[in-house]
Amino acid sequence: MKNIQIAIDGPAGAGKSTIAKIVAEALQFTYIDTGAMYRAVTYEALQRQIPLHDEQALTALAKQLNITLQPSSDGQLIFIDGRDVTAVVRSQEVTANVSEVAAHAGVRQLMVTAQQKLAKAGGVVMDGRDIATHVLPQAELKIFMSATVEERAKRRLLDNEARGIPSTLEALKQDIARRDQFDSEREVSPLIQAEDAVFLDTTTLSIEEAAQAILQLAHEKM
Ligand code: C5P
After folding, report:
1. Cβ-based burial of 191 (10 A; exposed 0-12, middle 13-18, buried ≥19)
2. Which of 55, 57, 75, 170 is buried most deeply by CB count within 10 Å?
3. CA of 109 relative to ligand 1 center, distance in Å
4. Cα(189)–Cα(135) distance, rounded to whole angstroms?
5. How far apart, in whole angstroms, are the C-alpha atoms of residue 69 and residue 84?
6. Could you tell me the distance, in angstroms and rounded to a whole number, from the CA of residue 129 to the centre of ligand 1?
7. For residue 35, what is the enclosing H or E element?
8. How is residue 50 annotated by DSSP?
C-alpha cells in the first residue's frame, strides 16, 4: 500500500469536504481542507479591517499569521496563532468575502507553499479549487467533483439548518453561482478541471456512493 496524494477539486457545495473526510478516514490518511486556510486569512483581514482589494497588505498579513491545521474526529480544526477559529471561519461574512481574498496571487503563493509542505509525505486527501492544477500536480489521484447549482444550494440549506444559520434557497443559489463565476474566472489559478482528473458528478449520488467511487480509484493507485 502506498501513501498516495489524492487531490479533490470542485465548486462550492459539491460535497468535497464531506466526501474527502470519509475517504481520508477509510484510508487512514490526513484530510486537508485548503478552503479553511483562505477563510482564516479572510477572517483575520475582516477583524483588522484591512481592505480586501489591498493585495500587498493581505499578503503581509498572510505571511505574518501562523495558520495551523489539526486533524479532529470531525475532520479538521484550524488555528490562527494558536486560537481555534474553526467555527468562525464558516460565518456568512467570511463566506461572502473569501473569494476576493483568495484571488490575490501573493496570498495564494503563501498558501500553496504551506499546502505543499503539508502534503509532502503523502497519505493525504486535500480538497480545494487548484489542488490538481497547482498545489499537487503530481498527485496520484485527481478528482473533479461537481453537482448542479440547485442541488448544491439545497445541500447548503440543510447544512445551514443543522447549524442554526438562517438562509434561503434563492440566496444560497445566488451565492453559489456568484462564487463559481468568481473562482472560475479569476486570473490566478482559476477553478478548472485538470486534464488528468476524473470527473465525478455528485448530483444524484449519495455521499457514501461518491466516497466509494473515489476509494475504488484510490485502491487502484495504491
Ligand atoms: O472550500 P471553501 O468553500 O471553504 O473555500 C472557500 C473559498 O476559498 C473558495 O470559494 C475559493 O474562493 C477559495 N479557495 C481557493 N483555493 C482553494 C480552496 C479555496 O481559491 N484551494
Report:
1. buried
2. 75
3. 14
4. 10
5. 10
6. 6
7. helix 34-47
8. -
Unique residue bearing C-alpha cell 447544512: 159
pLDDT digits (tens, 9 = 90+) for 131-168: 999 999 999 999 999 999 999 999 989 988 987 888 89
Distance CA 107, CA 22 (A): 29
Q: What is the pTM of this model?
A: 0.94
Place of cell 479532529: 72
What domains can be seen in the chain, in order of their start residue? 5-221 (3.40.50.300)
Could you report the predicted ipTM of this complex, rounded to two decimals? 0.98
CA–CA gap between residue 91 and residue 197 (Å, rounded): 31
Residue 95 Cα: closest atom of ligand 1: 6
Task: Please count the other Cβ atoms lying within 10 Å of the Cβ belonging to residue 92.
Answer: 13
35 lines ligand 1 (CB under 6 A): yes
Pocket test for ligand 1, best of 8, 31, 33, 34 (most atoms within 8 A of CB): 34
Three cell numbers, residue 171: 440566496
Inter-residue contact 103 to 55 (CB < 8 Å): no
